[in-house]
Structure formats: C-alpha cells, structure tokens
C-alpha cells in the first residue's frame, strides 16, 4: 500500500510502471492520466523526430505546444523498433512493467513481435491496452482514424453546430480524448482484477465506441422518436431557455433545468408575469415556444454587460456562466484556487506554465508534475536503471542507431 503520510506524495499509482508506445493524442491522453495518478510512464519514441506531435507548430526553441500539452510527467526513451535489437530492448522493458499502452492500427504491434500474446508469455501480469479508432474487430478495424472522422461516424458531428448550418466539429478533440478517458478506466479495473488473479488482461479500446457511449440521452431521443436529433447550437434539445445569449460586451450562458429556475429567471429579468404565462409554465410548453422564450431573454441580456448579468443572475441564483476564452478560463479565481496551472522547469524552455493534473486527493499533497520530456531525455536512465545496461553498452547501442 502506498504511504500517503509524507508531506509530498507521488500519487496512488506510485510504483506502477507503464510502457507507453503511443503518439499524437488518443494514446498519450491515456498515459497522461496514469502519469498524473503517480505511475512511472516510459514513453518510447522512434529516432529522428520522435512522437509526430513534436513537429506540430507553433514551436518555440524546437519544442511543440502540442507535445507539451499532452506529455507532462512522462519519461522519454528513444528506441528504433524497426531493428531486432530495438525490439529486444522493448520486450525486456515490457517484462518489467505493469501496463502497456499502444495506439497503432490493429496488427502493427503483433508484426513487431510486441503484441499481447507475445508479451503476456514473458509477463503474465501485463495489462495491455490497445487504443485504435475502430477497435480490433469489425469492417473498419484497419481504417485510419482521426478525431473528426470518429466525430462524424458516431453521430456527434451531426448534432453540433447551429440549426440549418453545416455540422461543426467539437472545439476540443473529444473523438481522440475519449481514449484518454476510457483507456485508464479499463486499465485501473484490470489492475484491480490482477490483485485477485495475478493475471493481466488485453484491453481493446475503440474511439468510435467511446463516442457512441457518450451519446447518452441523445441516442435515447433518437430511439424514442425515430428521428435524427438536429443541431441546436448552444441550446438544449429539450430544455428552454438553455444556451448562450448575447450581452453588450460578450455572451452569457443561462441554463434552466427546472421550473423553479424558470421562476428565478423571470424575477431576475423583471418579468415575474412570464412565470405564469400559459405558454411558458412547463418544460414542454417552453420547448414548444422556444423562439418567444429566447426572444424574451435576449431582449433583456443584449443591452447589458456580462459583468452586470453575472451579478444579477448570481443574486437570483440563476444557473449561468460568462463565456470565457481559454486564457481567461485558466486565469479565473476558481482555476487559480484549484491550482490548475503550474509552472515547471523545462530543460529547454526554462520556466513554462502547464495545465496541472485534474485529480485532487485531499489530505495528501502530490508532488508537482515533471515537465514534458525532450526527445530521448531518459534513455540512459531507463536502460541503465531498469535494464541494468552499462554505459559502454548503451554507447554502443547509440552508435548502432538502436537507441538515441
């Protein structure tokens, strides 16, 4: 059991080793969650550019914003998996780790000799998580997948955007990030199971499946009505008023989930009579009269500033929020209080701000995340400290191009 009594704590997964063969976003998001929880993550990168996202602009002093955003807390080791000596090193590392994550297309790791069957034979306790666009089975298993592709095929894209316009992809790449949610959930469940059985497990995570699973009540709406749900912009298909409304200097979100909130909204905008208007008295009636409800709210919000509206809706306990930019959001008092931005010392960039881990464990102060690694930063440390390879042999491996 991890000791949480010391002043600084690695996290609940301290002592767990993760071999990370992921790149770009879906896989790195999964290994990032495990690193945030205290696991030691060895990120295996190919020689040359490493993870492709290291080349994604904008770039500062050779370091990409994209890579920095998804790889805090990890260690980078460069191994050439196209040569047999590199595969041998990878297999030796797999024998010494608890979890392996990869997000190549199905079959790639098997062809390298690094598939689940091969590695579980040398490490029966290995939890092997394969993340791909469509999973290991089905007619699309071998297709390449990107975030917007899974958004389109899942139906998510069809309900995003303004009514009557072209579909709009989500502003955050949820089609990929869902792998960073479902992957760790399955891994931690398998880790719990291993305590009882002593055996690892193969996990098959499909990004498309993940978005299907997030459709929730939207899918049920389709089942109930037999119709395709349509895009509503920031509005809700069933609840009114719900969404963004214009202000004199920006916009504000108002969310009315129940009739009690509707009554408060009516009082806040100086129209208590609207609460008992026969057209607006129930959720169903407001949905049927969406346009006049929204017109009523918009007429009140449009000439007032966001600050005025926030003060007023706070007073009347109306669910609301100003629409903030990303920089504004991360600088707001709530984000500051939760320490969601921390400054770390990067080996190339010096002091840089990064988004902090989202997990909090009251009563145990977790150490600050390690900065995202530069390419190959921990190669010698891992080969020497984990595999026990001496400096002369590491130098020879580097001269042969096996590691870098």
From TrEMBL:
Keywords for this protein: Transferase
Top enzyme class: transferase
Keyword Transferase: yes
EC number: 2.8.3.-
GO molecular function: transferase activity
Keyword Transferase attached: yes
Name of protein: CoA transferase
